[in-house]
TrEMBL record, chain A:
It comes from Aquiflexum gelatinilyticum. It holds the Pfam family ActD. This is DUF3341 domain-containing protein. Keywords: Membrane, Transmembrane, Transmembrane helix. The chain crosses the membrane at residues 57-77, 97-120.
TrEMBL record, chain B:
This is Polysulfide reductase NrfD. The gene is nrfD. It is found in: Cell membrane. The lineage of its organism: Bacteria, Pseudomonadati, Bacteroidota, Cytophagia, Cytophagales. It is a multi-pass membrane protein. The keyword Membrane applies. It comes from Aquiflexum gelatinilyticum.
Length: 176, 454
């Protein structure tokens, strides 16, 4: 059986039942492909064993890039390329450069981080998501388990694990 | 599990389930436009077209069409600019600052408030662009573009230039923040739709699938954007106030301006949010999501910021007297008792006295009173900017050049244009976008609803 094609799905109605279920299912040695929810469930990354997102680091680096670009641009234009005396101020009037530097730092940090988020999560206008269950964006949480990855367990064994963990339905889903 | 104190009012009433939330919000997007919406929309487009006559006249003839003269070089245009930018402060404040403070009541109003912010900033940006006179050359005056004028750059010492960067950063970051929040909700609408609607909302939803990993990243993006947007909101009106505060005009040259402008901006922004949300909740039957409790909390923000604004007015007046500077003292006496006394006292009544009525619980929990007072606050905040700008300029250092400012039909028409634009955009948003953040509301259904789902 090929990976990433045939899935067994546990459908859950309640986020607290879901959090418990993830621990139980993982505890019985089943590898979870992914859990899909209609809203962000707090604590789900811990029980799934996901590492903390590195997006804050991306935001910081893009922010530093913004700071550097803004200061370089202002010093180059005001001090070196075309120095002018404005109100008797120093050509490199550093306090005057702070507002624009701040704004460009925020701008690059925000856009850089969001760009990385879009790429990392594969979000794009022409994206065609794999919809495991149409009710994921409405009111159901769905735990997807790849049958090929868990080939050591029989299908009815997996069904029992999901049922015992509190799933309200257990379904199968195959993708081309 | 999240535990909510029993003294807290439920944020969602009517015993809503997750399915009800999806249905109640998506229904507005899926239904055929109602007659009421159509009439309101066409009316806004009408105002937009009417105002565009004045806009075209101004662009064709130049800003001589306005009531400005050699003494009063900034008046109606910049008043409108500051007023719209101020209104544009509530949205990002609600979604960013209240997110950092974990105020869950923001979830019912943040989507519409952010939309309002974006549209208000678009309206605001119109004025500085038009008042350049030849806006088609404006990019060279406002942006550091390489040019053939001898590679003379824009002046980074000028607060007017800081404003260009502040407003454009604020607009684009707010837009991104708003759109990231919309993606999961577009996916909800996509999964309920068929045909062309499915294609359009499918593209808008960027292929969202609701995976736990994506939600986890989404949450960290939202948190960091909130952290970035919070100082950004404060910086924008601070920099707008620098346009005045860094000058040497009596009445403008004061260090109190940045905090005073920011408080005023939040004050007027919340008033506009209330005006729009009271109508939206009624028209779309969202009373279970935007409850009296939400309205009361927004009114409390209005009391606080209104009181800060009141204290700022009094402080400014005291400092003018205490400074011993005759020109400064005259500027303030002229505001109160000069030819524009009516503008000053309108501002004082609308901004300082009227919000104090919200100390009465009966008034701050009354929809009619809140709606009327929100309009009063918006009128008052327009007068505040008019008073600061026009009364400080019209009697300058040379009594021989003292003058009055009277708006012309073009001044009024361009203002009308921005109203048309704002409401046209808002009505389009209210019809085609989910007005409440469904995904966020769903995350609190279990902990704050009257009836827990299971």
């Amino acid at each position: 059986m090929e990976r990433d094609k045939n899935f067994i799905l546990g459908v859950y109605d309640d986020e607290d039942v879901l959090l418990d279920a993830i621990s139980k299912v993982r505890g019985s040695g089943v590898k979870i492909h992914e859990v899909y929810s209609p809203f962000p469930v707090h604590g789900i990354d811990d029980v799934l064993g996901y590492k903390r997102s590195k997006l804050p680091i991306a935001a910081f680096l893009f922010g530093m890039l913004g700071t550097t670009l803004a200061l370089t641009m202002q010093f180059y234009m005001m001090k070196f390329d075309w120095p002018m005396i404005i109100g008797g101020k120093d050509h490199a009037a550093v306090p005057d450069f702070i507002p624009v530097t701040f704004e460009l730092t925020v701008l690059l940090a925000a856009f850089g981080m969001v760009g990385v988020f879009m790429i990392a999560s594969n979000l794009k206008p022409w994206g065609q998501p794999r919809i495991f269950d149409i009710r994921i964006t409405d009111d159901k949480h769905v735990m997807a388990i790849d049958l090929a990855v868990n080939s050591s367990m029989a299908e009815n064994q997996l069904t029992d694990v999901l049922k015992n963990s509190g799933a309200s339905e257990v379904n199968f889903k195959s993708f081309e | 599990m999240h535990v909510t104190s029993s003294v807290r009012q439920p944020l969602i009433t009517g015993g809503k389930t997750l399915k009800d939330v999806t249905h109640d919000i998506s229904r507005q997007v899926e239904a055929k436009p109602s007659m009421g919406w159509l009439l309101a929309f066409l009316f806004s487009v009408g105002v937009l077209l009417l105002g565009s006559i004045a806009l075209v006249a101004t662009l064709w003839e130049g800003i001589g069409m306005w009531g400005l003269n050699k003494t009063v070089g900034w008046a109606w245009d910049i008043t409108n600019f500051v007023w719209w930018v101020g209104i544009g402060h509530a949205g990002t404040l609600i979604s960013a600052v209240l997110l950092l403070f974990r105020q869950k009541w923001r979830m019912a109003i943040n989507r519409a408030a952010e939309a309002m912010t974006i549209f208000a900033v678009i309206c605001a940006a119109m004025f500085p662009v038009i008042h350049m006179g030849r806006p088609w050359l404006g990019a060279y005056w406002a942006l550091p573009l390489p040019n053939t004028f001898g590679s003379l750059w824009v002046n980074f010492n000028s607060p007017l230039l800081w404003d260009v960067f502040a407003i454009s950063t604020y607009f684009s970051v707010s837009l991104v923040f708003w759109y990231i929040g919309l993606i999961p909700d577009f996916a909800t609408i996509r999964d309920r739709a068929s045909g062309i609607r499915k294609t359009i909302y499918g593209a808008l939803s960027f292929g969202w699938d609701g995976a736990a990993k994506t939600w986890s990243r989404y949450e960290s993006v939202a948190l960091i954007l909130a952290g970035l947007a919070t100082p950004l909101v404060l910086s924008v009106h601070t920099i707008v106030s620098f346009d005045f505060a860094t000058s040497v005009i009596p009445g403008w040259h004061t260090t109190i301006f940045p905090p005073y402008f920011v408080a005023g901006a939040i004050f007027s922004g919340f008033a506009m949010v209330l005006t729009l949300m009271i109508v939206t909740r009624k028209v779309f039957h969202l009373e279970d999501y935007i409850t009296i409790g939400h309205i009361e909390l927004m009114n409390i923000v209005i009391i606080i910021t209104g009181s800060i604004v009141g204290i700022a007015y009094i402080t400014e007046f005291f400092i003018a007297w205490y400074s011993g500077v005759a020109a400064e003292q005259y500027a303030f006496m002229n505001r109160m008792f000069g030819p524009y006394w009516w503008a000053y006292w309108s501002m004082m009544t609308c901004n300082v006295i009227s919000p104090q009525l919200f100390w009465f619980k009966k008034i701050r929990t009354s929809i009619v009173a809140t709606f009327l007072l929100s309009l009063v606050v918006n009128i008052g905040m327009w007068f505040e900017r008019f008073v600061i700008i026009v009364t400080s300029l019209h009697r300058d250092y040379l009594p021989s050049s003292w003058a009055m400012f009277y708006p012309t039909i073009s001044d009024v028409g361009v203002y009308l244009f921005t109203f048309g634009l704002f409401f046209t955009l808002f009505f389009l948003f209210a019809k085609f976008f989910p007005v409440i953040n469904m995904a966020e509301i769903k995350s609190i259904v279990k902990s704050t609803s009257e009836k827990v789902t299971k």
